[in-house]
């Protein structure tokens, strides 16, 4: 016990994060089958919030030391302005930490103001932490270089030297946060992409597929935005509309009224949906499937449909005037051991032969890569998940961790992958270095 007390606060936070992670694994293995489903959902999401907050404590300690503790011995530390500054930093960090708990308590038809404020602070927290670390690294590099050259560093007094770094980080954070908030508040851009498809029937040349992804109905995205997305899609008059996962961040019963506008979507040949990882975080996939079907949105649960230009599924013996639209469950269903779910490509593509054009819906680009390794004859895979990073510096991590980042990729002569940057955003109502998008894919017959 005495040894634990001697540990730094950052080390204690890291130990807490590890403990929560172990508890998540243990509860998933030993409690999932014994707890009532609603209780299990609540426990799992609470553990996720605690795990995120444990990791954030490490960064919060660093921010506090950089912006408050290092200045507490200066002559200005007793001033009223400095005391107000301390209060502002405490409120800022408290709001950032509370953001993950809004998933449990503050999800409704429209976002609560508190949720928007909390997630905005979380976005600013990420930006500030990055720039504080960057500035510290630059300062250390400069001092090391000066030491190797035998020079004396800096003529600024110690107080000014301690104040410059946090002041610069706060200023940059404020500017980028405002820019990110304004960018995310805009309607998604409508992007038109033409994709050449081999084996595309002549009658389906010019088929229009509208792609939505990563709407994340929850604490900061509600019914008003969903209505806007539906209006924008209907203006495009799609033949097919597809939603490639991460539609929601809470249970179907909580978001029933928020998702209701989907029932107004007008797609001549149907609207289809596949799960993303966040659907499994809600632990409510079966209820979401039922709700979406009531809104005329068909989930593709490791299955496919044959789509013809006439609008009716082709019958046995009829001309091969159709394409195969398939969908797989998100790969994290396997990691979470979600009963009855998991990516099953063979099942999803049952009946989809290389002689027919095949379009596959798979939420994560990693799933798209795995699918092409097994079935390189797939013509087009539609994915999301990356958000194109959503905010800086997460863009860099998203780029490095995914085989496809955002936009159209030609994997082979007859194979393409398109990754949507997302139609809304996850939690943080900001976008830096990316723009929300509704994608209009025009399939063109290739020779």
UniProtKB/TrEMBL annotation:
Origin: domain of life: Eukaryota
CDD domains, A to Z: MPP_YkuE_C
GO function terms (MF aspect): hydrolase activity
UniProt domain Calcineurin-like phosphoesterase: residue ranges: 207-388
Keyword hit for Transit peptide: no
Pfam family, one: Metallophos
The entry's keywords: Membrane, Transmembrane, Transmembrane helix
Membrane-traversing stretches: 12-30, 42-64, 84-106, 112-142, 162-182
InterPro entries, alphabetized: Calcineurin-like_PHP, Metallo-depent_PP-like, Metallophosphoesterase_sf
Protein name: TMPPE metallophosphoesterase
Organism expressing this protein natively: Crocuta crocuta (Spotted hyena)
